[in-house]
């Protein structure tokens, strides 16, 4: 199934008549502002503070980050996530990657949009990007996300195993890195497998590099994404799509 990355803002979704999703995945802006590269070696030329500051010092990741409106995002999600079916175990959900401090605000805005329930996720990295602070304080090696859903528990393909809310952050050596906050395709595959079936629709309204679309296409899901930066749309077509390796996991093929 070919995924589609749309060069437009997700608020304009009505123009494209895309189907409603079983799963929405979004990595929303973290509102880090001028500290986006803080504690990272990228702040300095060649990663060494002796060389002085690089052109990334004091910069935000994108000029669009400060204008991201969570209520409008939640409105989109409430419209584009399919309605809850009557049968159990088939309800949709969304997963929102966010900063730790954003979680209370996102939970509050989600409730206003009809997403009454949540489960928090923590992803544990092997190393920390805050290497410049390693001899000064405890450094962070975690990323955070929220599973948001309306009333019924979402579809859950755990295959009889217990799934913990603290997960390892896998390496992704096979996918080009084209976006500063790009999430690993193996991690996205794990989440997509957990909450969707083959043929279900996955939407990423803040698609960036399109790694969500790659993961969904790998797993035979229908995928749609929105991205307002043309350079990332171009990078998806010229670089990211080469990483697509279609093939269901063995447990799905056996069904």
TrEMBL record:
<dbReference type="GO" id="GO:0003677">
    <property type="term" value="F:DNA binding"/>
</dbReference>
<comment type="similarity">
    <text>Belongs to the N(4)/N(6)-methyltransferase family.</text>
</comment>
<dbReference type="Pfam" id="PF01555">
    <property type="entry name" value="N6_N4_Mtase"/>
</dbReference>
<feature type="domain" description="DNA methylase N-4/N-6">
    <location>
        <begin position="22"/>
        <end position="236"/>
    </location>
</feature>
<protein>
    <recommendedName>
        <fullName>Methyltransferase</fullName>
        <ecNumber>2.1.1.-</ecNumber>
    </recommendedName>
</protein>
<dbReference type="InterPro" id="IPR001091">
    <property type="entry name" value="RM_Methyltransferase"/>
</dbReference>
<dbReference type="InterPro" id="IPR029063">
    <property type="entry name" value="SAM-dependent_MTases_sf"/>
</dbReference>
<dbReference type="GO" id="GO:0008170">
    <property type="term" value="F:N-methyltransferase activity"/>
</dbReference>
<dbReference type="GO" id="GO:0005737">
    <property type="term" value="C:cytoplasm"/>
</dbReference>
<dbReference type="GO" id="GO:0032259">
    <property type="term" value="P:methylation"/>
</dbReference>
<keyword id="KW-0808">Transferase</keyword>
<keyword id="KW-0489">Methyltransferase</keyword>
<dbReference type="InterPro" id="IPR002941">
    <property type="entry name" value="DNA_methylase_N4/N6"/>
</dbReference>
